[in-house]
Amino acid sequence: MKRLFRMFLPLLALGGAMAAGLIVGRSDLPLPSWLLGAMASVTKARSAGAASEPAPAGPVIYYRDPDGLAAFSAVPAKTASGKDYLPVRASQDIQFDRPAQVAGQPPETSKQAAAGPKRIKFYRNPMGLPDTSPTPKKDSMGMDYLPVFDGEEEDGNTVKVSAGKLQKAGVRSEPVVLAPLGMPLRAPGTIQLDERRVSVVALRFEGFVEAVEDVTTGGVVRKGQPLMKIYGPALSSAAAEYLSVLNGRASGGAITTQALTGARRRLENLAVPDSAMSAIERTREVPAALTWPAPQDGVILERMAVNGMRAAPGEVLFRVADISSMWALIDLAERDLSMVAVGQKVTVSPRGMRGKSFSGKITLVYPQINKETRTGRVRVELANPGGALMPDMYVEAEIDTGSDKPVLSVADSAVIDSGARQIVLIDKGEGRFEPREVKLGQRGAGRVEIMEGVTTDDSVVVSANFLIDAESNLKAALQGLDSGEKQP
Predict the structure, then answer these.
(1) DSSP states along 385-431
(2) Domain spanning 184-194+323-400 has what CATH number?
(3) In terms of CB atoms within 10 Å, which end of the chain has fewer, N or C?
(4) CATH hierarchy code of domain 204-313
(5) Angle between the 33-52 and 2-27 helix axes, to the nearest 10 degrees?
(6) What is the pLDDT of residue 446?
């Protein structure tokens, strides 16, 4: 309250002095001493206030209407009533982006002020329209035109944005990075058996299954484990001939090595296992039925043999598969096939096993395209400890298609892609940005390779670059990029 009283006291005193002076002036009466003292105090206070304000400095940049109207002039002018326009010097011009002045300290001088005052060349439309003015003015929405100083338009490709707008828009820049570009390629696939680890049990002669051992579909067997007992006339005849040769040689008869080899070869041609021939040599007897063993370690995928059945030559009685190693067949889009090659690392994650993955490498890129789905296929070999991977299981594969060679890359959001060409905004500092056309390479991990147009010394805008694109000078800058191109 006291402060308000002190503020209005000089005004009240001045008003009273003026009224008293008017009365006394009209009545030709001498002014009293108290009135003369009040007028002197007001004059002194006004002089002190005027002395505390810094005097205008700098060159005259334009002239304004003396009555406070929104009228300006680049040269001295007069109003309709004959009043002179008031000069506005550089220190009096309003700059909303100027940093706040600390109380009790002189105004901070900028680098531009140290180098000398800049002259305003013209004023441009704040909305980016192709409209300029030699004097300050407002657009149809009441927004002030922005001043353009000497030197700011030397580079026609440069966009100037005030610091206040940059902060409000959230503009963010990142340097161009020279590093290996990770490019994971994701695609679906299925688990299949390794074709090289599947075998069948079939006879090379007509026979009969005397009995099947206690093995069933899905069961695990070991190599040499008995599967069934087989009887066949051709098998018994070949076994008797082999035994006869063995007995004749044992009794000292004229049995040649060639005869023994021929008899043994006949059994081998019937696929008689070595264990059965060893049993004949040891017991010197022809068994009524031979025990047929499992050809390898694995899982029984199919069991077609049943007790007492007649087995024709070539008929599949058992199908056994080794599942210690499996294949992942991955289907890739036709456009992605050029990114894969034999030897690349692959991580396979089964859809039915959350959080579990298997690692392998590409061993084959199939040389054909599925004409219905327009996809190609690659094969990945995977170790399968514990038999966790099963045939026809759905999986998601991630192929590391990147290279160890470092490349220039920027964030995906930094690229303005118009289809015909791609542009990034180079941050030159102090609110200046330059649109630059670039040539893109491979993409991956949220980044894109820049093959031409930038260097490691550049910094590009990665956030709110569409707002800079809307600035007034950007349109002219993009047109400048077309100045050297021939129109069709």
Answers:
(1) GGG---TT-EEEEEEE---SS-EEEEEGGG-EE-SS-EEEEEEEETT
(2) 2.40.30.170
(3) C
(4) 2.40.50.100
(5) 130
(6) 82
